[in-house]
Amino acid sequence: QVLRKGLQRGLVLSTGSFLVYEAHKLISGFAEVHASFKVEEVIEQADYLYGSGETEKLYQLLVQHKNSDDAELLWRLARASRDLAQLSSTSAEEKRQLAYEALEYAKKALEKNESNFAAHKWYAICLSDIGDFEGIKIKIGNAVVIKEHFQRAIELNPKDATTIHLIGIWCYSFAEMPWYQRKIAATLFATPPTSTFQEALHYFHMAEEADPNFYSKNLLFLGKTYLKLNNKKMALLWLSKAKDYPAHTEEDKQV
């Protein structure tokens, strides 16, 4: 009888434990589904705000999720931080702080998902920005790493016109690099990175083929590169397109 009561009590406890375990599994499942749904919801809101040019609202939305493990959220936060830093209303000290924040978010996005093309792209962009605060030696020193991440982004997504454009900018910058910067590069690398205006032109055209008329700055740099190559007829064609481009952003107005 004692044994039977003991077994019955054990069975009741086991059943109770089983029910608690099943309830925990069910709640955990709901939590996972809810978390997944929430991430998708935040990304949808973020993309809407980005498309609407609501830079400050976008940053405020995404910075709440800075501890997220989702690479898609993190690279968007890196981009939003950088975009906020670019605004004329942002103070010099805030620009610096946001630039370093953006790099950290992009780095974290890469750590979470190395196969995310946008994480590579924004890590390279943000790393380049840091050179504006740390000087030309750091900027040139990071140049090879920056290009590697742009190239990896293109490998992962060959249709992303913006990344192709940015490699064009990289080539253009090294093609027009002044002699004193070349001397710095020579002290940093056994074989310093170099490029030509022809190579830059190739990437700007590649970007235009991937997504025609996608970016005012690509049109501008096609014109500028043709000028460097002394082809004024083609320069005029692309500079006219840049001039007539509808100005949606501050950058478009500057272009």
Tell me what the structure shows.
With 255 residues, the chain is mainly α. It has a domain of 96 residues: Alpha Horseshoe (Serine Threonine Protein Phosphatase 5, Tetratricopeptide repeat). Helix content is 80%, strand content 0%. It is built from 13 helices and no strands. Helix 10 packs antiparallel against helix 11. The longest helix has 50 residues. The radius of gyration is 25 Å and the shape is globular. It starts with a helix and ends with a helix. 33% of the residues are buried. GO terms for molecular function: microtubule binding. InterPro entries: RMD1-3_a_helical_rpt, TPR-like_helical_dom_sf. Interacts with microtubules.
List keywords for this structure.
single chain, 255 residues, mainly alpha, Serine Threonine Protein Phosphatase 5, Tetratricopeptide repeat, Regulator of microtubule dynamics protein 1, microtubule binding, repeat, TPR-like_helical_dom_sf, TPR repeat
Which descriptor suits the 3D outline?
Answer: globular
Task: Give the name of the CATH superfamily of the domain at 39-134.
Answer: Tetratricopeptide repeat domain
The level-1 CATH class of the domain at 39-134: Mainly Alpha
| Structural class by sheet pairing and helices | mainly alpha
Radius of gyration: 25 Å
Helix content: over 70%
* CATH topology-level name of the domain at 39-134: Serine Threonine Protein Phosphatase 5, Tetratricopeptide repeat
Enumerate the spans where pLDDT stays under 50 for 5 or more consecutive residues.
Answer: 9-15, 25-35
Proper CATH architecture of the domain at 39-134? Alpha Horseshoe
Number of strands: 0
Tally of helical runs: 13
| Mean pLDDT, all residues | 86
Family: Belongs to the RMDN family.
Subunit structure: Interacts with microtubules.
GO cellular component, one term: spindle microtubule
Protein name: Regulator of microtubule dynamics protein 1
